[in-house]
Every structure is written in structure tokens, then in C-alpha cells.
Amino acid sequence: MRYLLRRLGQAVLVVAGVVILTFAIQRVVPGDPAVAVVGSHASQQQLEQARQQLGLNEPLPVQLGHYLTDLLRGDLGASLHTHQTVLHDLGQALPASLELVVTGLVLAVLIGLPLGLLAARYRRRPVDAAVRVQSMLAVSLPVFWLALVCQEIFATKLQWFPIAGEYTSALDQTSPLQLYTNVTLIDSLLTGNWSIFGSVVAHLILPALVVAAYPAGVIAQLTRAAVIEEITQAHVQMERALGFSERAVVLRFVLRPALNPILSVIALIFAYSIVNTFLVESVFNWPGLGSYAVDSIRSSDTPAIAGITLLVAGVYVLVNLIVDLAQSGVDPRVRLT
Fold first, then answer.
1. What class does CATH assign to 86-336?
2. Distance of alpha carbon 38 from alpha carbon 42, whole angstroms
């Protein structure tokens, strides 16, 4: 309980720091939000009225108080570009990004973890060298370049996958989708809309593999290092002497303690991938946070940019907290740190 309370307190402090930072950034970035509301050709009187409505004429401490009060009510403000609430816009864009990021991370774990175990099992052999080279390439390649190359090869030339989009737009007319979660893959599965489900899967594979490349390389390298370090421990030698098979030693006595650093990295990668996927979404025209962020930056939509920042920070803190608690369950020694 003490460990849980301590971690919750740290999470609250981090979120509070991000909130204050986003407020400060909105007040120092170039440009006048009032101009974005009423237009650059508005009269001085219209600008003053807009500033009054936005609360820009009040002292900064008062503005901060209003900002915090609005956040506690779940009010992130209104987008200067879409004229919808930022919360509504994020609710429309986030599911598509999560669909892409979660699929990419699942693929990364399914690829990176076995490769790391394989490299550790055959350390200093050709298999180990091949895994290390491939993981280094996956980590080093710029994600936007990898997205463009994959799109050119597998979508344009080989035509194995669709080139862009979340699913074929014509299906909205022939097989309209009923939304429940706003995650197209899940909703199409729940409603038995197999036409859209198949189209989403086909459109998802290529961008998800691009998103998975970096985390798969990191997970493979970290798994290899953690397993090799754990294998050298005295208790592993004792378990081998007791007659356990090599597979049982690795799966039961080596992999479990080695999972702690791997879980931590997955939490960090999850938050990183939400931002990193913006470039992938732009290349593949995926309708997620990336498209919304690009439009917000182009239009100097500071409330929307602040909302995206708060969302990413909140996801990072939440995932990190969940992973810390999971680690404490896997290895009780974590609670003592």
C-alpha cells in the first residue's frame, strides 16, 4: 500500500508539472489566440472582445486558476481550427492512433521477445549476430523513411497492401459501420461487419509493422542482455544441477526476473510510439492524432496542441504507473526501491 501511494503521489506531481508547463507554453508561443478566433482582418474592438471571452486580459495567476478549474471539469477548451471542443476532437482521433500503436506494440513483443531469447540462447553464434544486426537496423532507421520505403515496395510496386487510409472509403456506402468504441477494428468485429474488418486488417498491417520496427529492435536487444545477465547468476547454476531442463531454466527461472526491465521499456515505448506514430500516420494517411496534431500546428491551434500534450503525458504517466505496479507483483523487491 505504501508503494502504491508513493507511486500515485509521484504520478500526480508529474501531471501537475505538465499542466503548468502547457499553460506557460500557451502564453509564450508567438501569435495571438484572439486573431485565430476572429481572423486577421478583424477590428480592434472584435479582437478585444475575443480576448475578453478567452480571459486573456486577466492576470496570469487568475488565468492559471481558471485553466486548472476547467481541466478538473474535463474542459480542455475549444479548438481554434475545428471549433469543436478539444476533448471531442481527441475522442475522435485517439481511437485510431491507439488501434495502430497497440497493434504495433503487440507485433513488437511477438517479434522482439523470441528474437532476444534466441540470441541469448545462441550467444556469440551466427544467429546471435544476425539478431543483433537486424535489431540495430530497426532501431536506427528513421521511421518516416521506413514508412515511405515500405509503402513504395509493398503497396505501390508489389501491391500486397493498400497504400493509405484506415479502410476502403467506399465501404461506408455498401457496408456502413455501427460505432460503439470508435475503434474501427473492434467495432467491425463486434458487429460482424466482415467487409470493413478485412479492409481494416489489410490497411493496418503495413503501418503497424513500421510502428513495430523500433520497439521490436529495442525489446530484442534488451531481452538478450537481461537474459544473458540472469543466466550468469548462481541460482541458475543450482537449478541446472538439480536436473531442470535448459528450457525450464530459461522460462521459469531466467525469463521472469528478466521481464522487469523489459516491462519498463515497453511502458516508455508505448508513450513514445503515440508521438512517433504521428509521422507514420502522415505517410499512410491514418486518421489519428497525427493528422489532428499536424492540422493544429499548421493553424497555430494552441488549445488543441496543449490538449494533445496533456493526453500524451497522461498516457505516459498512467502506463508507467501500471507497469510499476505489475513489476512489484512480478518481483516484490521492486517495492523496496
1. mainly alpha
2. 6
Distance CA 34, CA 56 (A): 9
Q: What is the DSSP string of 245-308?
A: -HHHIIIIIIHHHHHHHHHHHHHHHHHHHHHHHHHHHHHHT--SHHHHHHHHHHTT-HHHHHHH
Specify the 3-state DSSP secondary structure of 13: helix
Q: Which three cell numbers stand for residue 10?
A: 509521484
pLDDT tens digit sequence for 34-76: 665 655 566 666 666 766 666 666 777 777 777 788 788 877 8
What would the grid cell of residue 327 be? Answer: 513489476
Distances (CA, A) of 241 to 226, 233, 244: 22, 13, 7
CA distances from 252 to 10, 168, 213 (A): 33, 46, 28
For 141-192, the pLDDT digits (tens) are 888 888 888 888 998 888 888 888 888 888 888 888 888 888 888 888 888 8
- pLDDT single digits (tens) 15-26: 788 788 777 776
DSSP at 142: -
Could you give the CA distance from residue 81 to residue 300 in angstroms, rounded to a whole number?
Answer: 8
pLDDT on residue 107: 92
- What is the SS3 assignment for 162? coil
Q: How far is CA 252 from the centre of its chain?
A: 31
Instruction: Answer whether residue 330 shows pLDDT above 60.
Output: no
Q: What angle do CA 133, 227, 4 make, to 5 degrees?
A: 115
For residue 306, report the phi and psi dihedrals to the nearest 5 degrees: -65, -40
